[in-house]
Write a structure and sequence with these properties.
This protein is an all-alpha fold. The chain is built from seven helices and no strands. Helix 2 crosses helix 3, helix 2 packs across helix 6 (about 140-155) and helix 4 (about 80-95) crosses helix 5.
């Protein structure tokens, strides 16, 4: 008669190590230059929009003006308006640096999806290059969402702070 080996549960991760494990998993990334290009391109394209919303550069309304527009005119709850502004400013800067790229890409991706569906979809597909339509279409937002998805899946890639920090946390 065969003897059965008792099954022992896996060693549980200590509660102190669990947040570090999650952080390491969020930052884990390969030396991928495609991910680098997607991440930096997304950050560089979104950052000017964030600067419009935070400090009023490039003809933007600044933080107070943007919060007022989002909450009063568009009916967006203040917390979601604030998160959108942070995604496009702090998140874009974090993407350029490659710091918490997946988290930043998620924020930017959600913001772009929301803007495309709630504001720009009625204007069709194309951007308003020649002023011939009421507003911008969704093509820019689709590209931004694709870049965000690449960063979500692959991480920050080469030349990122995530890669450096993940190596140090993994020791």
């Amino acid at each position: 008669m065969a003897t059965m080996t008792p099954v022992t549960p896996a060693t549980p991760v200590s509660q102190a190590a669990a947040p570090l494990n999650l952080l390491n998993r969020l930052m884990a990334t390969k030396n991928d230059f495609g991910a680098l290009v997607a991440r930096v391109a997304l950050g560089l394209v979104i950052l000017p929009h964030g600067l419009q919303k935070t400090v009023g550069w490039f003809g933007g309304g600044g933080f107070d003006g943007t919060m007022g527009m989002f909450t009063t005119h568009m009916g967006i709850p203040a917390i979601f308006a604030f998160l959108a502004i942070m995604a496009e400013s702090v998140g874009a800067l974090a993407l350029i640096l490659g710091l918490l790229g997946r988290v930043s890409a998620l924020g930017v991706g959600i913001t772009m999806t929301t803007a495309a569906l709630l504001v720009h979809l009625p204007n069709g597909f194309f951007m308003n290059w020649f002023g011939a339509q009421q507003g911008e279409g969704v093509e820019f937002f689709l590209l931004a969402m694709a870049l965000a998805l690449i960063t979500l899946v692959k991480g920050s890639g080469a030349l990122s702070l995530d890669r450096v920090l993940a190596k140090r946390l993994g020791r």
